[in-house]
Amino acid sequence: MPKYFIELSYDGLNYHGWQRQPKEISIQEVIEECLTKLHSNKKIEVVGCGRTDSGVHANHFILHTYIPEVKNTSEFIFKLNCMLPDTIAISNMYPVKDEVHARFNATYRTYRYFINQQKDPFKRGNSWYLQNKLDIDKMNHAAKLLIGEQDFTSFSKINTDVKTNICKVKTAKWNRLENDSFYFEIIANR
C-alpha cells in the first residue's frame, strides 16, 4: 500500500493527547477508527509527527499512514472530515516515499503558549488567564537562556523510553497581541 502524509489540526481540549491511551480517548484513536471505517474495517494505523499532552491543540500536525491508493484526494478528505468530530479537521494529504517518517523527518516543532490578561470566556480553552502584571522585556531576557543546545532533563519525565533529553532550541520569545494578550513561542528540534 502507498504511504501518505495527512495534514490536520485539532482542538485537544476534550482529548487525552495525540497518542493512543489505554483507557482514554485520543486524537490518534479517533482518526484511526475513521480511517478503518473508510476502508471496510481493515485496521489502519497512523504515526504522528509528535505527541501532545492532554488538552493541547495543534494548528498544523502531520501524520503518516499506509492506505490503499487514493484517486481523488479532495473527495477522500471530504469523506474523512464528515466522519471526524468537529474538533478534528483534515486539510491536505499527499503520497510520500516509503522512507519518509512523520516524526523522525520533522526537523523543528513550534509551540505557542497563550496568556490572556482580560477575562474572556471565548479564550478560556486556548489561553491561560493571568491577572498579574507582566514584564515582557525581562521575560524575553530569561527566554534567551533557553536558546541553543542543552540538556532539559530537569523538565522531563523520568523512566521513559526517551533516549536523550538534549534539545536544540532555535527560538524562544514572548510576543504581544492585542488587548493585553501574549504568547510564548518556542521552536526546537524536539
Q: Strand-residue fraction?
A: 25-35%
Strand order within the widest beta sheet = 6-5-9-8-7
Rg (CA only): 19 Å
Question: Could you give the distance between the termini?
Answer: 29 Å
The largest pleated sheet is described as: 5 strands, mixed
- By helix and strand content, what is the structural category? alpha+beta
Which runs of at least 5 residues are low in confidence (pLDDT < 50)?
none
SSE string, helix = H, strand = E? EHEEHEEEHEEE
Please count the beta strands (DSSP E, at least 2 residues each). Answer: 9
Number of helical segments with 4 or more residues: 3
Question: Which of globular, elongated, flat, extended, rod-shaped describes the shape?
Answer: globular
Q: Residue-averaged pLDDT, rounded? A: 93
What does this structure look like?
There is one protein chain. The strands form two sheets. Strands 6-5-9-8-7 form a five-stranded mixed beta sheet. It has a four-stranded antiparallel beta sheet with strand order 2-3-1-4. It is of the alpha+beta class. It has three helices and nine strands. The mean pLDDT is 93. The chain is globular and about 55 Å long. It starts with a strand and ends with a strand. Strand 8 and strand 9 form a beta hairpin. The longest helix has 12 residues, at 27-38.
What topology does this entry show?
Layout: E1 3-10, H1 27-38, E2 46-48, E3 58-66, H2 73-83, E4 88-96, E5 109-116, E6 128-129, H3 136-143, E7 148-151, E8 166-176, E9 181-188
Parallel strand pairs: 5-6
Antiparallel strand pairs: 1-3, 1-4, 2-3, 5-9, 7-8, 8-9
